[in-house]
Amino acid sequence: MKLIGRAGASVVTILGGLLLCAIAVPAAAQEVTVLCNYEVDWCEAMKAAYEKTTGLKAVFIRRTDGESLAQIRAEKGNPRADVVHAAESASAKALASEGLLEAYKSPMVAELHDWAQRIAEENKYFQTPIYTGVLGFGYNTELLAKNKMPEPKCWKDLINPAYRNEIQMANPGTSGTAFNTVATILQLMGEDEGFKFLAAMNKNVNQYTRSGTAGIRAAGKGETTIGIAFLHDSVAQAVQGYPIKTVAPCEGTGYEIISSAIIKGGPNPAGARKWMDFVLSPAGQNVAITVNKFQIPSNKNAQVHPLAPKPSDVKLIKIDLDKYGSKEGRERLLSRWENEVFKAPK
Fold it and tell me: pLDDT of 102-130, one tens digit each?
């Protein structure tokens, strides 16, 4: 048997090292796959900023909140995506309880506002907040005046027959905005009375949209009078020149905490962590202003638009996340909504 000499051994070692490097490079350069629940323009801007800032690549799959939840659950054990960006806090909490998320404490957490740090810590870093926003509605001032409708100021006003077929909101099964709306009404009025109110308002709803921002965008274009939305989405329509007035309901209202989270077992966990670091940084959060988004960012050093709604200016209520945020609570709520509201006679 011929033995390999020292020179040959060195060559083998070098070749072996090169082979290992060749194998490792594609993994290091692997794209991070993101389930993006933002509007398309925001998703695209985030992708471009991430790639420019980090030199890494990202692939976005545009989904609504409900669609992302369904995909993550359906792909348990073999997920196609690395990150969900971004999930409503209650939804992320439910996913974590089902073992579908991976905990990660980004070094950027130290730069976040106290409320964001608290929520990340309470959830054991299975989610980290990106922004917060306040719920309400907006209306088209021109249509309101033309049709001589009263000015809506409160949730209770939305069952006024004057608004027959003049309201749009999203379907809570696909939209985090709409799910938050339903939870807010139930929290304010009590569950049974709240569903009675929603059934009464159903007579005034001309469409339950797939996306949470579709209703207020339709109001801006004059396709409906009132759109139920987060206030930052209503403000965005006014900033673009549409005749929209934003309303924080007089009874008080709910709010959203939106978080980014790593999907457990995703194909690129290292890329997922880099994505988290980016979206929690000022560079990641400042993208919002470039696409006319007016949420309150979680990073203390991120830019805040002067027109962004301030939670301190409205009456906020506390949403019972354990009651409405758990998987069981969500399914029960959606079942009642489907049977008692969506299927209610017009």
Answer: 999 999 999 999 999 999 999 999 999 99
CB 283 within 8 A of CB 49: yes
CATH number of the domain bearing residue 271: 3.40.190.10
Amino acid code (one letter) for 69: L
**Are 239 and 305 part of one and the same domain?**
no
Q: By CB neighbour count within 10 A (0-12 exposed, 13-18 middle, 19+ buried), where does 289 fall?
A: middle
CB 135 within 8 A of CB 257: no
Strand-pairing partners, residue 36, are: 62, 85
**Rounded distance, CA 11 to CA 23, Å?**
18
2 in a structural domain: no
Beta-strand runs (E) in 50-97: 58-62, 83-88
Does pTM top 0.90 for this prediction?
no
CB 186 within 8 A of CB 179: no
The verdict on 76 and 223 lying in the same domain is no
Range of the domain at 149: 133-255+323-342
Domain count, the chain: 2
